[in-house]
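Reopening: structure tokens for the adenosine-5'-triphosphate complex, inputs below.
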Amino acid sequence: MLVAASRSCTKLSAAMKDHKLEKTAAKLTAPYRVDGQGKFRLKHFDPADTGRLRDKESATQLLDNGVKLLSRMQEKLYAQNRWSLLIILQAMDAAGKDGVVKHVMSGVNPQGCDVYSFKTPSAEELNHGYLWRAHKVVPARGKIGIFNRSYYEEALVVRVHGKILESQKLPPSLVTKNIWEERFEDMRRFERYLTRNGTIVLKFFLNVSRQEQKKRFLERLEDSKKNWKFSMADVKERGYWKDYQAAYEDMIRNTATKYAPWYVVPADNKWYTRLVVASAIIEALDKLNLQFPDADKEVKKKLQEVKAGLLAEKS
Ligand code: ATP
Ligand code: MG
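Re-run output (same inputs, fresh job):
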């Protein structure tokens, strides 16, 4: 078993060197992709899964190569200025969202990438429909946008805590038992609209186990360098674990589509989580067949003239 695993790691590393990473990425992410085909059950996804990889070292090497490839792809995305990429990260606390942003996007030019963290809505935000604050910051053409939490909180924390819904100032007659179905429908349509306008939408649920979350909370309490990450609110939310799992399951079941799939990413091993997310992004960008824009004949002629002029200058 171990021999087979290390052999497949060697094969994977070789594939990266041959620039076949795009194909490897697709294979790696396939088990975690949920796109609305068949009935989704969260319990079928193991948070501790590490696929064909057994150790951090081989995954780290793969991720390093993936980050370099991502950097080259992003340069083309930006230069081409046609497509954009929206990455949505959702998870229970301490599942590793921040680490994904830091490690997966480490090679990307900051000019071409924006990260937005969605917190409790402000008074102004509550005076609008819930998609308003998200729509304002979806990535422009050529750019990558990362949503650290998103409008999906509207079917998670708002669903788990009924009081939040009451504070949303909706006309009472619109708050019926169908509200979650209606929200899912609006989210699907919103994403359909975005994808029809050139935004690729990738959604990641970092699937951490209850035991691993406990371990990470304890680390935050014990290690003084991690104390700042600890929040009493996170422990409170942990008390609603089952409700959250049910809300996540229903949300993914209702909003996973071919055009905007969810990836249920195993999150008990951070090194594997990061590799799966990077791979899904690489796979999606690869499908766009990104190229640096080629200047047309007229422009090329002009460029040559400018070049000749510059070379002819005396000083
Ligand atoms: P994170 O927990 O994502 O790492 P953080 O610890 O920096 O971020 P928090 O203060 O925990 O910041 O902010 C996120 C909080 O905002 C979460 O508890 C989340 O549930 C809440 N939140 C986000 N969107 C909404 C929303 N639409 N309605 C109510 N609460 C929301
Ligand atoms: Mg928090």
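The chain is about 50% helix and 10% strand. Strands lie at 33-34, 84-91, 113-117, 144-148, 199-207, 262-266. Marking as resolved unless the reporter disagrees.
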